[in-house]
Amino acid sequence: MDTIASLFSFITTPVSWVIVQFHSVYGKVFGADSGWAWGLSIVSLVILIRICLIPLFVKQIKATRAMQTLQPEMKKIQERYKTDKQRQSEEMMKLYKESGTNPLSSCLPILAQSPFFFALYHVLNGIATGKTIGVIDDSLLSSARQAHIFGAPLAAKFTDGADKVSQLGATLTDVRVVTAIMIVMMSASQFYTQRQLMTKNVDTTVKTPFMQQQKMLMYVFPVMFAVFGINFPVGVLVYWLTTNVWTMGQQMYVIHNNPTPGSKAQAAFLERLQKHVSHHGKTRSRREKAIVKAIVAKGRDRNEFERKFMNSLTKAGLAAQSDGVVVKSENATVVESEDGTPVTGAAAPKRQQPKRQSKSQRQTAQAKAAAEAEPKTSLTKSDEPQDAKPDAAKPAGGGTKPGSGTRSKAQSGQRKGPQRPKSPSKK
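Structure (tokenized):
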């Protein structure tokens, strides 16, 4: 570790100068030799560095989401050229170039922060060995060596022996208890940050190897922090714990306000946005208009949560326009055309559901339809003239046979009464 830190000695002077400037401010409040003055100086150094790295963090988010989008295409390339690794690498680079994605962009904040981390380690190691470094002179060196955080010197390590710890004015128990608690908190914050990313801000509709790698890192990183943490001075543990807490809070803010499409965080975000827009009846900020505009422009490419958002606006009597504005419309419905463009407004037709009929109603309707379809074969009594009734229609004896009213009249040329079967012809 000392060899690596010496490689970044060119930035040791700026880092030590920043720490001294913050120490001069906090020393007036807590005292020059106080551990709080030196500890808060390190915390302030972290905050200053992370504020400067916010543009790189935004770029990291965009690169990570772009990589998630490209995962299906990358998987196809891997399956197509599984036997030709060179062609596979060429196609991957071509895909990165066409999409404008750089895989290393997701590592930029860590890479940019590493020089400051090793420079701080170099400064604290100099304090532990009693060497002036950067702008830290003999008086500041003496003050830093007397500074303790909860009984542990800033330059002490978990692996230090009792003799070395006693030279710094502390006990071995205090040093190991404080460093152990800080290592556990550092590993736990790293695990929670990675777990939050995997459970809330990952597109659950796409199952790719990238997700498996992230799950693996969720357990690997905390173990790495625990292993390397026992060799870090207390001041470096303060630095790393602070940067982990900053990363966790920064990620919580991003997940809450700018979630990944298709993730659980987006579902919660759109639900909050729908309630806010429905309460006010319109989009009130540019950001809300930009989000609604992007969802409307997707058309048929909307995911499940975006479709639910649009349907919720419709049920609330609101219509989302193509420019992101939401207007009130009592009969607002959303109908997607063939190309996926939504049509809003009262002119959109409403689909009526037919009423369900009972079994008796269906039987009555069927009987009525059959009666109307049956042709009339006789005239009623009032419409038929008296002289139109043929005498041949009357049975012999002037009476009527029982049940004859339900039989149709005999056709002309047919023989009345039961028919005798024809006898077979004689040969």
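The beta strands are 148-149, 152-153, 318-320, 326-328, 333-336, 342-345. The longest strand covers residues 333-336.
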